[in-house]
Design a protein that fits this description.
The complex is a heterodimer of chains A (463) and B (320). With 463 residues, chain A is mostly helical. Helix content of chain A is 73%, strand content 1%. Chain B has a domain of 208 residues. In chain B, strands 1-4 form a two-stranded antiparallel sheet. In chain B, strand 2 and strand 3 form a beta hairpin. The longest helix of chain B has 36 residues. The chains are: A mainly alpha (463), B mainly alpha (320). The interface between A and B is large, with 54 and 59 residues.
Chain lengths: 463, 320
Amino acid sequence: MSKNRGNGLVLAAAVASLLLLLLAPSTLTGLVAIAAVGLTAYLRASMPVRALSLALLSLGCTLGLARGAGGEVLFIGLVAVLVSLITIPNVPGWIKGLLGAAILLISIPIAGFANSFLFELGIQIGIYAAMALGLNVVVGMAGLLDLGYAAFFAIGAYTWAIFGSPQANHFTAGGFPLNGNFFYLFMVLAVITTAITGLLIGLPALRLRGDYLAIVTLGLGEVVRVLANNLDHPVNLTNGPQGITPVERPPIDWFRSLMGSIGIHLDAKTDYQLFFYLLVLVVIGIVIMVNVNLGNSRFGRAWVAIREDETAAKAMGIPMLGTKLLAFATGAAFSGAMGVIFAAQRTFVSPESFTLLASITILGMVVLGGMGSIPGVILGAAALTILNIDILKSFSEYLNSLRQSGATVLGFNLANLPNQFEPAKYERLVFGVVLILMMIFRPEGLIPERRHKLEAEEAKEGS
Amino acid sequence: MLDALLQLLPQVFFEGLLLGFVYAMIALGYTMVYGVLELINFAHSEIFMIGAVAGVEVFRYLVPVIPNALLLLLIALVIGAAISGTVAVWVERLAYRPLRKRGAVNRLVPLITAIGVSFVLQDLVRLIEAIWHNEFFLRINSLPALEQSFSLLGIFIQLKSIILVVVSILMLLGLSYLVNRTKLGTAIRAVAQDMNTAALMGINPDQIISRTFLIGGALAGVAGVLFAVQYTTISPYVGFLPGLKAFTAAVLGGIGNIPGAMVGGLVLGQLETLAGTYMPTLTNGNFGTEYKDVIAFLILILLLLFRPQGLLGQVVKEKV
């Protein structure tokens, strides 16, 4: 009985928000749609009803976005649909695959054509998600706390930025920038160099236990930042704090003609955005595959054993250093590859993108989503990226407009609001609060990995 | 060139000593907390920063009112210590104690919490300063009396530097006495050794941990005020590097070991100042002063490789 009512409610909510989105797509109707996604996820409706509702909602969000309205809220709605697809149990695989692919390959590009900021958002989420998945191997699976992960990202980014721009002319014979086609080669090169760097750092550092490892990697991150900042003399390698620009992008004529052949004609700016978006999706696909396969392999089990109890794992004959090094190097390699994409996509690289805050942000994504859990980590990346480059910025702009309007609230003139006070500058505060609250109330993360969840339950029973 | 280098040496040595005492004072807080909870309290560098900001604020408001430099500094030190100590106690109560009660599953959990706390404190101070004064790069409104200087054996010495050295030595001696000779100190050592057994002996571990944070925080607060007076420019992010180096100093001396933390701080201060001064000269200006931070971390890494127990530490058997 109650099940049927759930069915009706979910369906009604989905249809109602679809209609609302068709009639008047806006931020407000976007919020209604997100609420409808929430209802679909939490009411006990039957499976076909849930699937239908999610399909209707993604259709609604896509159509709304195509008309260029509602902006980021509808985008968040799409992300919410994706998340519910992953988290709702008993949804058949083919529905998940079909709907997920439709959202990733159709809805988001459509939204991006209408509003190029959404493409940028999608690409950034993708880059961070891939990195977070890489860090997930290190922290989530093997339990090694790496606080200098952005260092590998920086090494990857600079590898391409130096040779894919006139920068390299400063210290070797001319001929730079390299042809953009070398981009793909450098992705492979960056994977190799960062994996080797990971090994070199890991070799001494991984003899240490958790806390010390954290400090050493933190120090390493600082060292890389200082080097990036100061290696403009005696030899100008990194161009110091000014950073390197312009960085070459790969030529994509083949991609343009491919898109043209399926009837999509793009202008010179969006074609690169679509290209990078799809490239990032492909890389994430590869990263997920590696993650899953490694997780189920001999090494994956060894990592979990080390994470749970290092002493016991050692006693069972697991080679400590080799196993840990593999995790460290794998994580580093992913980060390096994403660094190359990051450099090419932005055409600009500077030390500012690789601070401790960047490392902690990526760690925050892993922790927030659920250490060791692949869908969780992607959700964490999406949530923190949206929060960081969208919500806080919009809130800052809103405050600025309030300030300029000079309105008074409760006898306080808003024009007197100190102009140092800008929410976009307080991302550390938000991250910090998120990290603390998560650790206190839900240390296993939003979408916990099965084993972490069991552990948490065990600990509760024990106390 | 060698002559020029040697001529600078006494001054460099003195500057290194000052920096070393600052590191030593911060390192003691790390060491105490690590000894009791086995937690690297990342937020400790922000407790230090809060002390520095409190010092700046006290000077801002009291310089016109109180003309006596020593009295003013004393007030600033007391207020700085009180604020930092209180914040440290509340950080422990709000962020770390809930984890302990839950019986933290994973050692990463408290560490990540500590990073979160450190970020929150940085931006909270920035927010407060932004709303209060509409600025967050603070310059201390120091008194000329504190800047008085004289020359001794070719070293340029300011009154405030002498105060820094004297106050830190007094604090370090006081802390040694407190930990080794008093009842509270015995209780702290007991909790550090084995929390459960200490509880059976009638010690309330929560209370002792709270007091450990109070003492460590107050020390960091004093260090912060002296740092602000000595180095004059402060921002909410000023705690990060000294904090990291103080931790390095604590590891250098053997973490959990109070004399070790002191020795580590002084050694690191010397090395850093030496590197910072001579690096540009020795490399003909190719590598600048900025590389002194790199040197600190390289020392940390090398040390952890070859002598993980630190200079004065002993090898601790692993508890299984």
